[in-house]
Predict the 3D structure of the following.
Amino acid sequence: MSRQMTGAEMVVQALKDQGVDTIFGYPGGAVLPIYDAIFQQNDIRHILVRHEQAAVHMAEGYARSTGKPGVVLVTSGPGATNAVTGLTDALMDSIPLVVFSGQVPTFMIGTDGFQEADTIGITRPCTKHNWLVKDPAKLSETIHQAFHVATSGRPGPVLIDLPKDVQFATGQYTGPKLARVDHYQPKVKGDIEAITKLVELIEKAERPIFYTGGGVINSGPGASQLLRELVDATGFPITSTLMGLGAYPASGKGWLGMLGMHGLYEANLAMHGCDLMINLGARFDDRITGRVADFSPHSTKAHVDIDASSINKIITVDLPIVGDIGHVLEDLLKVWKARGRKVNKEGLANWWGRIDEWKKVRCLAYTNSDAIIKPQYALERLDALTRGRNRYITTEVGQHQMWAAQYLGFEAPNRWMTSGGLGTMGYGFPASIGVQIAHPDALVINIAGEASWLMNMQEMGTATQFRTPVKQFILNNERLGMVRQWQDLLHGGRYSQSWSESLPDFVKLAESFGWKGIICRDPKELDDAIMEMIDYDGPVLFDCLVEKHENCFPMIPSGKPHNEMLLSADAAAFAGGAALV
Amino acid sequence: MAALNIKKGSTSHSAYDLRDFHSDIERSHTLAVIVENEPGVLARVIGLFSGRGYNIDSLTVAEIDHKGHRSRITIVTRGTEAVIEQIRAQLGRIVPVHEVHDLTTEAKAVERELALFKVTATGEKRVESLRLADIFRASVVDSTLESFIFEITGTSEKIDAFAELMRPLGLVDVARTGVAALARGV
Ligand SMILES: Cc1ncc(C[n+]2csc(CCOP(=O)(O)OP(=O)(O)O)c2C)c(N)n1
Ligand SMILES: [Mg+2]
């Protein structure tokens, strides 16, 4: 297809041809021609946000819960700079986004024009790739290439900077099929010789473990399906990073829970003590490894990743496999089956025996109270009351985020959206709106801390306007809880600037935006209050007043090895100083 | 990517012992990076080096194929084997990067640099500078009664050596192109 149209019309046409149904954005002078084109059509829905950072997080929520790229439109200058946090967040967590920013007309670039910013320069390090389009003849092809780059290989955010005169100019539109994309074709098939080596290791291993990450989810639902088949057929234990939760079901028999800084005791000790580590789409982040020199010292390590630069970046591995997780798992299963589905049964039985001993520590145990709501209890109840439902969870960043990862069970991929790599407070609320836009009938809950939640609270208006019945479940400890915890454990209890002062009356705040507000402080009333939140047909702000001084355990302090983990008093009492490894 | 060298049967060693190329020794490597000749591509490459804290000892860039929109960036960098491997992989992620070659390990490369030296001198020093230039096969490309500009090509080491000898004779200005390199053979 090829016809004449304006640059602004090309943007809209290209989005339609890419199958985009929703964009998140905020207008301004430099994108008015595109907004005019949006006005004159009905295929693409525009969600008007209240701050451009939130538009990007919404697009991330949309993308992570659907597997499709999220699309954002912002104006030049401040519109683009406001988007930078979201772009960086998406880059760190490998989320496919296509962001359009307006720019001053080409003849004004470089003159410090009104609302001019060097958007390409500013976003170069926080996008997977970006383009400044100066020639209308290249616009449609560039947009199609942008979708290709954002979604292939290791996904990520891309940005197209569009000068205003290019939006007005007319040119030839070309469809997606004519766009040249052959210059960027990351390898998806893994080396079969290396895969066969991995099968040999799997057959012999005495103490194996699967260590999985966001790459499994990004690879698509098929990869999660293959992972389940492989884990269940081999009987190996499996742990996952924060990013990978849901790829293997929490109810599955191989599941050890999350690993890392606030990971489960059994998961971290199994990583420390294993003899074969199979890393699938995770990247040995410092929140996972702790002190690198002491990380899993006795294991042979295999690492499957679509991004060659993730391999040997932090931890030197023995068996690198560059490829897409889904493709590699498919080949791996084929080879393993063809060779007779062998595992080291005896070794494995002993290994599970040790793991079961570690599980007895019950590292998530906490002292409950009937006077005050413990945050862990609130999440256990929330999980119990929502588990069977069509549920999506987003989070903010802090203690509540880690407790959510520990106490909620995820049975399917794409149901858990949290800012893992960048740790962006203010992510969860807009992300929950993006998820709800994509899944209007689902139960979408943002598990929040009061401080994080305030960082993008202006989006209450967006939720009201677009009738997204998002549930904001705030674990309100009146503290920057995670900061307070570090100060408690590592800075002599000097609580410098970690109090959430002058908080709003959340119920009144809710009502002022036409939401329902709920406040709950009594553990005995919690179940009813949660049910009231779930049953309400509209957005709810739930102010759950919780214990203010609770710390999140287990915890491996930064830079410590896995076997120097701090446990809660309850769990530590049980572990009783027993040798950890 | 590293060769597969799993020690069969034994899994009781640290992964660090298994890799024969794991070493703390820093070495100079010359990388040839073939890129799409589009705006900003050099900024991407340089931004990668500064953002991730890698060294650049020398960098040259020029278009090598006008029709095919290809440019060649030659980078001399320094690091352990692991760092160099990481640099190569990171360069490979940049969307408009087509190929990355480590000319130091993949093939013995021919490396050349061009430099211009301005020497101001009179009398015996002036004569001596001409004599040295002759030995180094540098040619005079500009001369006044008190100055010469010498043009010299060669390895970076040869140019360094020439500069050392010229300095006491009145070297006032140097312009160097940085290294251009090609793998030998076919
Ligand atoms: C934008 C941003 N600024 C600062 C931080 C550092 N930080 C991490 S957690 C945290 C406190 C979060 O408090 P709250 O949202 O109330 O969650 P809690 O830990 O109390 O559950 C802070 C300040 C961050 N992650 N993001
Ligand atoms: Mg808090």
In short: The radius of gyration of chain B is 21 Å.
